[in-house]
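Forwarding these from the shared drive since the link keeps breaking.
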Amino acid sequence: MSRIRVAVAGASGRMGREVVKMVLGDPELELAAAVSRSADLTIDAGRLVGLEACGVQMSSDLELALVEGKPDVLVDFTTPHSVVSNTALAIKHKVRPVIGTTGFTPEDIENWDKQCKELGIGGIIAPNFSIGAILMMKFAAQAAKYFPHLEIIEYHGDQKLDAPSGTSIKTAELISETRQELRQGNPKEEETIEGARGGLYDGFRIHSVRLPGIFAQQEVIFGAFGQTLKIRHDSYDRAGYMPGVNVAIKKAMELKGIVYGFEHFID
């Protein structure tokens, strides 16, 4: 059986390096291209991540890398500013996108899904590839059936570009599938400082904390008469996302169209 050829966008970034290491460490996968706008283009991708040379030089041109490297899958952990054009390029060249970056719209996903189905390829877009984070989302959606009063607090480092996080939005979407819309709190509540109560989603609030020293955490707090329930997930290292990315790469080869959310692959 031939190995799955993988291109990595944002390969010199902190998450991209972990993806490169994961790909090089899996005998079922083959690194086809490593793309970064900022990396030294004379460096071998293996050397870049502290491993032996693998024979793949860094590239700054994604489209050229897709044409010359002929990957089956593109893994993208870049930025919200780059992900839309990167995904469009991948699909144009019949490369299956596995996207862990936020910054697209529901219309983007719908359009890409249609294009992928027409081309006979599949892809996965997921705000979070951590299996623990997916379980947190699923548990929260289950709890919301019995505890409809809730708030979400998500914590990230102060350099994160988007707020709220894609993970918190995905959590909110899953909760809303099991919980009827409910306007919480006192109907006469008034914010004396704008934004103090967080962002409003389907009647509940999402709060975004941005501070140096934090990697990625999220908790969903449920309140009821005489009790509270907290469901929390903490990420401490980017390597924790790699088992999920590995599964996504292999699942993408079996799909037709775009699947939004890694929870579809966790029973």
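-- next protein --
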Amino acid sequence: MPRPTGRAGHWKESLPPERAYKRRAGSATPTLEQDRAAGGRDRRAVALGDGRYARASIALKLYRRTRRIRAYLRWSQDGSTRERYVCEVDRATRGENLAEAWRQARGMGLVSDRPLPADSRASSTSVRAVMRANRGKDTGPELALRKLLYRRGLRYRVDTRPIPEIRRRADLVFSGPRVAVFVDGCFWHGCPEHYRAATRNAEFWQDKIEGNKNRDVETTEALRSAGWAVIRVWEHEAPESAAELIAHEVQARQAEARSKPTGVDAPARGDGH
């Protein structure tokens, strides 16, 4: 008797591809991956009662017998791990499946937004999560990019001035080939795709973001005038694509320097993006 197919819980004809449920080497850290899929760290809250919350994660499990992927919500409570079945997922990639599971968990009332602190300037928990995730150095996108570049054999300095006389710091600096890399957070640098203006203290934040954007332009122009290649990467960009772009620029400048006679400076090149 043939096995039924095409309905949730029944048999499928073939196993889903590994990219639909397994984490890839060199991908974003587990925490960043979950934050992105849920729409922000503070959107991963499970209410425990008495004003307490736990931060949950979604686990994807492949059931080989039925050839289906199931999503489970996990969180820690009173020293033990709790787990709740959410749904079956059937998207093409792990990221899409995680996002779908978070949507389902929210619709079922299993997770909610963690309440904003009374002194928060953010207009929502999602805005606050973005603001917190993109402060300072060693952010998730930076760490993912650095890991990929290091695996390629590239070496760099972190969070330093490309030119000591210019009081601007880059996230990654390749001193020899003179390549400066900035990993720009979508909120703090006004990403045209993902920036959402705050509604609380709107004028303050508008001035803050516009000031950051103007400073970015000034920094890029100053470094390029001094012969540096400047590459700007948005935090939402795939780290693999960014690493490919950076490696190409660094290696091209290194090759150009080797081909020049001793004592001749290589001309400024590359606009980055």
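Confidence is low (pLDDT under 50) at residues 1-9, 266-273. The longest strand covers residues 68-77.

- D.
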